[in-house]
């Protein structure tokens, strides 16, 4: 089963996903979307989202680091292992409340996506 982790080096949840795969001895391709603009476009096209990390397992896309969802998709027994409940706050309505680092990160992702669109002559609207 092919696994792709769309990430950036500065993303803390990407690091958590990376460490999870390494700790579980699961092979994966780590795609740095801050350096590979084509991969960033591919990621957004597949999921419709600009949030990180994004984990592609087969035909399934998991947006954010959700250890339980990853284990379920990989067929790892969730009940027998300790799930720390670590998930990214990708779906939280209070995503940026008192967390400037997450806001800055999202702004950086948006800048990358805007630059991709502008270089290709595409328009947002």
Describe the overall structure.
- This protein has a four-stranded mixed beta sheet, with helices on both faces.
- The N and C termini lie far apart (37 Å).
- With 125 residues, it is of the alpha+beta class.
- It is built from four helices and four strands, in the order E-H-E-H-E-E-H-H.
- Mean pLDDT is 81; it is low at 89-97.
- The relative contact order is 0.17.
- Helix 1 (12-23) links the parallel strand 1 (3-7) and strand 2 (29-32).
List the helices and strands and how they pair.
Blueprint: E1 3-7, H1 12-23, E2 29-32, H2 37-47, E3 54-57, E4 60-63, H3 67-74, H4 100-119
Parallel strand pairs: 1-2
Antiparallel strand pairs: 1-3, 3-4
Share of residues in strands: 5-15%
Order of helices and strands: EHEHEEHH
What strand line-up does the widest sheet have? 2-1-3-4
Secondary structure class reads alpha+beta
CATH architecture: 3-Layer(aba) Sandwich
CATH class descriptor: Alpha Beta
N/C terminus separation: 37 Å
Number of strands: 4
Biggest β-sheet, characterized? 4 strands, mixed
Fraction of residues in H or I helices: 40-55%
What is the radius of gyration computed over CA atoms, rounded to a whole number of angstroms? 15 Å
- The H-level CATH homologous superfamily, spelled out, is Glutaredoxin
Question: Which outline best applies?
Answer: globular
User: What is the CATH topology descriptor?
Assistant: Glutaredoxin
The tally of domains stands at 1
Number of helices: 4
């Amino acid at each position: 089963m092919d696994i792709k982790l769309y990430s950036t080096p500065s993303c803390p949840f990407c690091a958590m996903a990376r460490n999870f795969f390494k700790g579980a001895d699961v092979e994966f391709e780590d795609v740095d979307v801050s350096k590979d603009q084509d991969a960033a476009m591919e990621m957004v096209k597949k999921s419709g989202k600009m949030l990180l990390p994004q984990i592609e397992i087969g035909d399934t896309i998991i947006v954010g680091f959700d250890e339980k969802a990853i284990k379920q998709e990989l067929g790892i027994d969730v009940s027998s292992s300790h799930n720390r409940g670590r998930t990214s706050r990708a779906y939280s309505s209070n995503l940026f409340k008192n967390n400037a680092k997450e806001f800055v990160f999202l702004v950086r992702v948006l800048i990358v996506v805007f630059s991709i669109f502008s270089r290709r002559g595409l328009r947002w609207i």
